[in-house]
Amino acid sequence: MRHIISLLVENEAGALSRVAGLFSARAYNIESLTVAPTNDSSMSRMTIVTSGSDNIIEQITKQVDKLVDVIRVVDLSELKHVERELLLIKVMADSKLRAGIEQIIASFNARLIDDSDNICTIELTDTGEKLEKFIQSFDKNNIIEVVRSGVTGIALGKNILQV
Amino acid sequence: MANSSEKLRGADIFVRALKDEGVTHLFGYPGGAVLHIYDALYKQSAVEHILVRHEQGATHAADGYARATGRPGVVLVTSGPGMTNAVTGIATAYMDSIPLVVFSGQVPTHLIGNDAFQEVDAVGISRPCVKHNFLVKDVRDLATTIKKAFLIAMSGRPGPVLVDIPKDVTADMCEYEYPQHVEMRSYHPVIKGDSEQIKRAIKLLLSAKKPMVYTGGGVILGNASQELTTFTRSLGYPITNTLMGLGAYPATDKQFIGMLGMHGTYEANMAMHHCDVLIAIGARFDDRVTGDLEKFCPYAKIIHIDIDPASISKNVPVDVAIVGDVKNVLSEINQQLGAQTGSIDQAAIKQWWQQIREWQSMNCLRFDRKSDKIKPQFVIETLYELTGGDAYITSDVGQHQMWAAQFYKFDKPRRWINSGGLGTMGFGMPAALGVKVAFPEATVACITGEASLVMCIQELSTCLQYDLPIKIINLNNRYMGMVRQWQEFFYDKRYSHSYMEAIPDFVKLSESFGHTGMRIERAVDVKEALQQALAKKDKLVLMDFITDQTENVYPMIAAGKGQHEMHLSPERELA
Ligand SMILES: Cc1ncc(C[n+]2csc(CCOP(=O)(O)OP(=O)(O)O)c2C)c(N)n1
Predict the structure, then answer these.
(1) Burial environment of residue A106 by CB neighbours within 10 A (0 to 12, 13 to 18, 19 or more)
(2) Which residues have C-beta within 8 Å of that of residue B546, sequence separation ≥ 6?
(3) Ligand 1 atom with least separation from CA of B401
(4) Is the pLDDT of residue B568 over 70?
(5) CATH number corresponding to A2-78
(6) What separation in angstroms does the CA of B541 have from each of B374, B392, B468, B473?
(7) Enclosing H/E stretch for B417
(8) What residues of B are annotated to the active site?
(9) Mean pLDDT, residues A77-91 taken together
(10) Please, what is the average pLDDT of chain B?
(11) Predicted confidence band of residue B5 (pLDDT cuts 50, 70, 90)
């Protein structure tokens, strides 16, 4: 099962490598990992997408929680939550293709952010699954470059990850 | 405490902080990056520095010191090769949850990342084998970081902590004050067990018809032997200890049925296999204990007490989990248990004991007592008798380690000191040295094999310099015995590189280091030789016992087998 684990960590050199190192040392899956500071500059928030049996996920959260730099851990998948990922994609856009591209952009609620040199640069923020579908809407041969941010997520309502 | 307006150099802060932390011994080896610190050490006498001969020796000595005393072992090494040499010892301590604080010198901050002379990424290299580590970039953080390092090493599930200190930090000046307390919002080990879970555990324990108590190193680390003994006696249930847990419960007590696991006793493993309620205390269901997990304790409901939540249900799913400090949890269980033991099904327990006595009658640890050749088991048994079971015994890794665990009956905790988790050859002698530093009056013996012993043989010099007259019991079978045993059983006796050619003359070797050496070749001489060596209270004696080369460790559970599928001896194959 796919899980989204969210962590608050001390904003210290080495915190990221401790978490990443734990995943590789214990042979846990890691699909994506994002990290950035929060509104409190002493803390960073990390989101890890991983997969494994219930047992393994339990071990992952416990082992991560054991790291001295980790302040809080939550498995977002157990709560009502949203996940979002940012995609930037460049596609070929000559006059023949343009109409199709505009249609795809409209139907996914994506945003055209640049149109130059016969190349469209498009931005879409949505769930990982939607991004996947969006990418598949283009002819493979017309895709020039794809960059995804990795998933971030947040629990909804009164479930708050804080110190 | 220092006057708060006083300014000190980083190196002096380091030394003062150790003193204020109550550190009395430091195991180390100098080098460029730590020369300021060595200069500060020279000018004081509160902390005694013990100069080892290799940084691995420093970590093992500090580790032995920590295991025997319960206080943290402290190490100082230089940057680069000094730090990398220490890694084996750090990993050894990590696997057995031993509190060490290791200080490594580092190149000056402005050179970090520059491939400077003797630079290594100490924090990166040590990360997977420490509980936590720090790089101190500013002298103003030094005292607080040292305080945190000791707190982390000693609390919760203990473990080694590395503090990497760049050379310029040891030269910079700042005001010194050693913090009384440090708070870390991300670090709060659980102490008290959940009382609902404790109630459930007690109910389950009292309902048992074939109960089993299985305890590990956590009971020793948590100083909970007394509580464990009270607990086990009040129930009257059988108890087994892991290799790391020996001594937590008196081995000579009739409720103790021996060590369990790969080379555990037949009765302990059979009782594990057949029990209906198992309580695991400060033990982690290691693969050398469980054998094949599919076949592990098939009939048992399992209770598990451990300070580390990640140890619970890691290998074996449990029915009642209690996260907490074992001493705290066991005292609470003992309090509540008091009046309730009346409800134990005594008839069933009696029957269970009868079954266990039957398994015991197999006499699984028997060996040939008539042989002229020296049987290694006999040496240990004799050592046990002559020391009244009261010596500190360290060990290396191999057959001799298993025989020591089987034949020396430990009645007290912290007397049996071995590398159970990492299985580090070379651990035993420096560890013994560390124990002797802590307890100069005690009898400290290292039971080793000729292959393990030479891995840190240089520490014989340290023993001479600091007058540490340990006893070295070298069970010399001219083989890497444990490797040979596996090759005999599982590789059709193809003894690939397990034979030790060109073995040194250990008597001369010991003498060349300024110590005494003895060679013992006949079984009849064993006792007298040991008596002589033990009587030489002020001499390190290396006793080279030329043992039976073909002896194997029994019983044995082969890899992939269940606990009930033991080999007892070549003549007595079971299962
Ligand atoms: C540093 C290290 N290298 C290799 C091993 C693998 N190993 C385990 S036991 C053993 C043989 C030990 O031989 P010896 O010290 O003579 O003890 P014996 O088994 O003969 O009692 C070896 C090589 C190890 N445990 N540690």
Answers:
(1) exposed
(2) B374, B476, B519, B520, B521
(3) 21
(4) yes
(5) 3.30.70.260
(6) 19, 15, 11, 8
(7) strand B416-417
(8) 55, 117-118, 167, 482
(9) 97
(10) 96
(11) low
Nearest to B262 by CA among B54, B572, B566, B570: B566
The domains spanning A2-78 and A82-152 adopt the same CATH topology? yes
pLDDT tens readout for residues B313-324? 899 999 999 999
The pLDDT value recorded for residue B574 is 46
The C-alpha atoms of residue B265 and residue B271 are separated, in whole angstroms, by 10
| DSSP string over B116-161 | -TT---HHHHHGGGSSEEEE--SGGGHHHHHHHHHHHHHSSS---E
Q: Which residues of A touch B313 (CB under 8 A)?
A: 55, 58
The C-alpha atoms of residue A24 and residue A20 are separated, in whole angstroms, by 7
Ligand 1 within 6 A of CB of B477: yes
Provide the pLDDT for residue B575: 39
Contact of B251 with chain A, judged by CB distance below 8 Å, is answered with: no
pLDDT of residue B3 exceeding 70, the answer is: no
- Chain A residue closest in CA terms to B188: A68
Q: What percent of chain B has pLDDT over 90?
A: 93
- What are B30-81's pLDDT values in tens digits? 999 999 999 999 999 999 999 999 999 999 999 999 999 999 999 999 999 9
Between the alpha carbon of residue A33 and those of residues A23, A146, A151, B128, the distances in Å are 11, 17, 7, 19
Distance B517 CA to ligand 1 centre (A): 22
Ligand 1 atom closest to B448 (CA)? 15
pTM of the model: 0.96
Q: Answer whether B243's CB lies under 8 Å from B249's CB.
A: no
Q: For ligand 1, is residue B469 a contact (CB within 6 Å)?
A: no
Cα(B112)–Cα(B183) distance, integer angstroms: 29
**Contact assessment for residue B169 and residue B136, using Cβ atoms and an 8 Å cutoff:** yes
| Span B69-128, pLDDT tens digits | 999 999 999 999 999 999 999 999 999 999 999 999 999 999 999 999 999 999 999 999
Q: CA-CA distance, B167 to B106, in Å (whole number)?
A: 6
DSSP B292: S
What number does CATH give the domain A82-152?
3.30.70.1150
Least confident of B186-195, B529-538, B559-568: B559-568
B396 lines ligand 1 (CB under 6 A): yes
What sections of B371-417 are H helices per DSSP? Answer: 376-386, 399-407
Q: How many angstroms separate the alpha carbon of residue B454 from the centre of ligand 1?
A: 11
Q: Exposed, middle or buried, B335 (CB in 10 Å: 0-12/13-18/19+)? A: exposed
Residues of chain A neighbouring B128 (CB-CB closer than 8 A):
21, 25
pLDDT > 60? residue B1: no
Give the residue-averaged pLDDT of B364-384.
96
A95: distance to nearest CA of chain B, Å? 51
The reply to whether ligand 1 has any atom less than 6 angstroms from the CB of B451 is: yes
Q: Which of A45, A66, A70 to mutate to test the interface with B (most CBs of B within 10 A)?
A: A66
Instruction: Please give the sequence-ordered ranges of beta strands (E in DSSP) within A65-142, or none if there are none.
Output: 70-75, 81-92, 111-116, 119-126
Q: Is B568 or A28 the better-scoring residue by pLDDT? A: A28
Please give the pLDDT value at position B4: 56
Most B CBs within 10 Å, among A68, A72, A163, to test the B interface: A68
Q: Considering Cα of B461, then B465, then B466, then B472, what sign does the dihedral take? A: positive
Provide the pLDDT for residue B543. Answer: 98
> What is the domain partition of chain A in residue ranges?
2-78, 82-152
Per-window interface: A 40-69 vs B, CB < 8 A: 55, 58-59, 62-63, 65-66, 68-69
Task: Answer yes or no: is pLDDT of B569 > 90.
Answer: no
**ipTM reported for the complex, 2 dp:** 0.92
> Tokens representing A14?
């080495």
* Cβ B398 under 6 angstroms from ligand 1: yes
User: The tokens of A91 are what?
Assistant: 């596609």
CB–CB of B152 and A68 under 8 A?
yes
